From TrEMBL, chain A:
GO molecular function: CAAX-protein geranylgeranyltransferase activity; protein farnesyltransferase activity
Protein origin, superkingdom: Eukaryota
Protein name: Protein farnesyltransferase/geranylgeranyltransferase type-1 subunit alpha
InterPro entries referenced in this protein's UniProt entry, alphabetically: Prenyl_trans_a (IPR002088)
EC number: 2.5.1.58, 2.5.1.59
Source organism: Cyprinus carpio
First-level EC class: transferase
TrEMBL record, chain B:
Species this protein is from: Cyprinus carpio
Protein name as annotated: Geranylgeranyl transferase type-2 subunit beta
Cofactors demanded by this protein: Zn(2+)
Oligomeric and partner information: Heterotrimer composed of RABGGTA, RABGGTB and CHM; within this trimer, RABGGTA and RABGGTB form the catalytic component B, while CHM (component A) mediates peptide substrate binding. The Rab GGTase dimer (RGGT) interacts with CHM (component A) prior to Rab protein binding; the association is stabilized by geranylgeranyl pyrophosphate (GGpp). The CHM:RGGT:Rab complex is destabilized by GGpp. Interaction of RABGGTB with prenylated PTP4A2 precludes its association with RABGGTA and inhibits enzyme activity. Interacts with CHODL.
GO MF terms held by the record: metal ion binding; Rab geranylgeranyltransferase activity
Catalysed reaction equations from the record: geranylgeranyl diphosphate + L-cysteinyl-[protein] = S-geranylgeranyl-L-cysteinyl-[protein] + diphosphate
Enzyme superclass (EC): transferase
GO cellular component: Rab-protein geranylgeranyltransferase complex
PANTHER family with a match to the protein in the record: GERANYLGERANYL TRANSFERASE TYPE BETA SUBUNIT, GERANYLGERANYL TRANSFERASE TYPE-2 SUBUNIT BETA
Enzyme Commission no: 2.5.1.60
Keyword Manganese: no
Keyword Transferase assigned: yes
Pfam families: Prenyltrans
Length: 369, 346
């Protein structure tokens, strides 16, 4: 396919540029000096070493429809310059800042970066500006990671990600990048403090809770009882601030899974105490989990029958009053507990899944009661 | 109790100062399924090839075509699409390395390779491309640790693990990869809450969970999932409006009607969702004038959300729509023709 060869050929490539100031409109092939964009990125046409080069007419390229659309709709200028440097010609196109553009051009950009031995620090400034503009694009973050790897320099990364997170504290890509940097370069110091700051700002930030788990798992771990106790108390404190907080309850459950909820000293008492002032479906659900753990481990600190009754009572409360949208789930838990730990006949329901069959049609799904 | 309501930019009401981040569905929102309007919307989409939004989405065109064709097939309207033009287009997108790009002249990627294979499966025309080379391309993207890169530049994500096995399963060539390592990598992305992220340690996210449960279904490893724990996490995505979000404390979005619901179906716990409430949320996301579905009521529609709204309704049992396979997001009858029946838990 000829278009494939054309793209791979370093001659007649397109390099994507950052946007220009809105008030400038530039006619095609006319050189004009623009202000550098934020982050200190300088257009090629502003660089002294490129100043003596003659522009060449724009090549139509593989997708003329795309280019026409850009130049019509672009509310910033769409400058097209062709520059020749040595035996390679680099076509520099300034186009509207859209995530699509980076996705299309990233290949050319990387091939050129490698082939022309471009200054990677400049590339870092470029990708910083692009990410600030398009923080939810997969490709721009991966590109940044590649530049960091090529430079082998993570020194700006945590600060940069923190800036992006200050605009959107749950940006999934930003968190992935942060985790990669920390693991790759062993930059764990100060992260717990950073997570706590974020949780101060928004105690319901699930990404921050996940990060807390990530940091501790990769540093001290949870097996030290002092650390575990610290985390339990920290989480209970956050729950008191905002009781209806799924993330905090998930975290509490998660860190105590291995040891078992019912055997953790003082936990039942502390959670029960919260019931008056900090009640929520999550608290009630947590108690159900705790009672279930007591039953499963046949804990001697718990009266088995009484514990089962309490658990069933809470499931009923959730199904009928506190969390009715998930009544099917709570009825399932109730039946499972009855069947496993009850002394009577097994309990079934019309909404139990049918016995295993090879058919996967939706009409074999049980109907709602 | 509900206290403050404020209006968001798109005219939805958002609950503030209460405990739940959600939208409120207005009484005048659509509450019946407007299938004909959606078929007309998709049939017309992309007919004006100089449309701005259409042009800007060229970088994902192959997936866009897959979304459009699949939803049309689910509605029994596949014949309205231009089969010959699409097949020629796909042929022009296969590169020498075997991989397939989003559009002519773009670079190959696993995402668009899967979309292309899905489209050709819908059209029972898989042999218009070089299948052996596709298999080589996918195999070549597997890394030492079992993960898959999306393309030669090396981005790793469990989405790509799913794309790899789904592609190979549709081609009947799952045996070419290192299965144990592939499974090992996906399982290493399982989190303390039972969910999955894009890489080990990444936050659980419904989209990634769909990819991982789909992966484990295709590879026959669903027994490794903690179905009760994950099922609970997934049914917690349902908000008072009936809509589903993708992770805690985020707004509902109709595409999660697919990612969450399909995952629940795969692990045998779809009945843990309040179906009536979800259905009313999905229907409210329709646009009565233009056809199509938006991410939430009142927003702009697009083919992506249209597919996942319709597919979600199919999973909920709507009889006007063909049954959809929860692993591949393709009509069940297509998979039956191919002879693919991925495991589902009971």
């Amino acid at each position: 396919m000829s278009s494939v060869e054309e793209i791979s050929n370093p001659v007649a490539e397109n390099l994507e540029e950052d946007g220009v100031e809105e008030e400038n409109t530039v006619e095609e092939a006319e050189m004009e000096y623009e202000e550098p964009v934020k982050g200190g990125y300088i257009f090629y046409r502003d660089r002294k070493e490129w100043a003596d080069l003659e522009p060449v007419p724009q090549d139509d390229g593989p997708n003329p429809v795309v280019k026409i659309a850009y130049s019509e709709k672009c509310n910033k200028s769409s400058d097209c310059f062709g520059l020749q440097k040595g035996t390679k010609s680099v076509q520099v196109t300034c186009i509207l800042h859209e995530s699509v553009v980076f996705d299309v051009c990233r290949h050319y950009r990387r091939v050129l970066l490698q082939a022309l031995d471009k200054d990677l620090r400049e590339e870092m400034k470029y990708i910083t500006a692009i990410i600030e503009d398009q923080p939810k694009n997969y490709q721009v973050w991966h590109h940044r990671r590649m530049v960091v790897e090529w430079l082998n320099d993570p020194s700006e990364e945590l600060q940069f990600v923190a800036e992006i997170l200050s605009q959107d504290a749950k940006n999934y890509h930003a968190w992935q990048h942060r985790q990669w940097v920390m693991q790759e370069y062993k930059l764990w110091d100060g992260e717990l403090e950073y997570v706590e700051e974020l949780l101060e700002e928004d105690v319901r930030n699930n990404s921050a809770w996940n990060q807390r788990h990530f940091v501790i798992s990769h540093t001290s771990g949870y097996s030290d009882s002092a650390i575990l106790e610290r985390e339990v108390q920290y989480t209970l404190k956050q729950i008191k601030k905002a009781p209806h907080n799924e993330s905090a309850w998930n975290y509490l459950n998660g860190i105590l899974q291995d040891g078992g909820l019912s055997s953790y000293p003082g936990l039942l008492e502390q959670v029960t105490e919260l019931q008056d002032t900090c009640s929520s479906p999550y608290l009630t659900a947590f108690l159900v989990d705790l009672y279930e753990d007591a039953l499963e481990t046949n804990s001697s600190s718990y009266d088995q029958q009484e514990t089962l009754n309490k658990a069933l009572e809470l499931c009923k409360l959730l199904a009928e009053e506190k969390d009715t949208i998930r009544r099917e789930y709570w009825n399932y838990v109730s039946r499972s507990l009855q069947n496993t730990y009850g002394s009577g006949d097994p309990v079934a329901s019309s909404s139990d899944p049918p016995p295993p069959s090879s058919s996967q049609q939706p009409d074999t799904e049980p109907s709602d009661p | 109790c509900l206290s403050l309501l404020s209006e968001s930019d798109d005219g939805n009401f958002i609950l503030q100062g209460t405990q739940v981040k959600d939208v409120v569905i207005k009484p005048e929102a659509p509450n019946t399924l407007l299938l004909d309007k959606h078929a007309d919307y998709i049939a017309a989409y992309g007919s004006k090839k100089d449309d701005y939004e259409y042009t800007l989405s060229e970088y994902l065109r192959m997936s866009g075509i897959y979304w459009g064709l699949t939803v049309m097939d689910l509605m029994g309207q596949l014949s309205r699409m231009n089969r010959e033009e699409i097949i020629e287009f796909i042929k022009s997108c296969q590169h020498d390395c075997g991989g397939i790009s989003a559009s002519t002249g773009h670079d190959p990627h696993l995402l668009y390779t899967l979309s292309a294979v899905q489209i050709l499966s819908l059209y029972d025309s898989i042999n218009v491309i070089d299948v052996d080379k596709v298999v080589d391309y996918v195999k070549g993207l597997q890394q030492e640790d079992g993960s898959f890169a999306g393309d030669k530049w090396g981005e790793i994500d469990t989405r790509f693990s799913f794309c790899a096995v789904a592609t190979l399963a549709l081609l009947g060539k799952l045996d070419v990869i290192n299965m144990d390592k592939a499974v090992g990598f996906v399982l290493s992305c399982m989190n303390f809450d039972g969910g999955f992220g894009c890489r080990p340690g990444s936050e659980s996210h419904a989209g990634q969970i769909y990819c991982c449960t789909g992966f484990l279904s295709i590879t026959g490893q669903l027994h490794q999932v903690n179905a009760d724990l994950l099922g609970w996490w997934l049914c917690e995505r349902q908000l008072p409006s009936g809509g589903l979000n993708g992770r805690p404390e985020k707004l509902p979005d109709v595409c999660y009607s697919w990612w969450v619901l399909a995952s629940l179906k795969i692990i045998g716990r779809i009945h843990w969702i309040d179906k009536a409430k979800l259905r009313s949320f999905i229907l409210a996301c329709q646009d009565e004038e233009t056809g199509g579905f938006a991410d939430r009521p009142g927003d702009m529609v697009d083919p992506f959300h249209t597919l996942f709204g319709v597919a979600g309704l199919s999973l909920l049992g709507d009889e006007q729509i063909k049954p959809v396979n929860p692993v591949f997001c393709m009509p069940e009858d297509v998979l039956q023709r191919i002879g693919l029946q991925p495991d589902l838990l009971n």
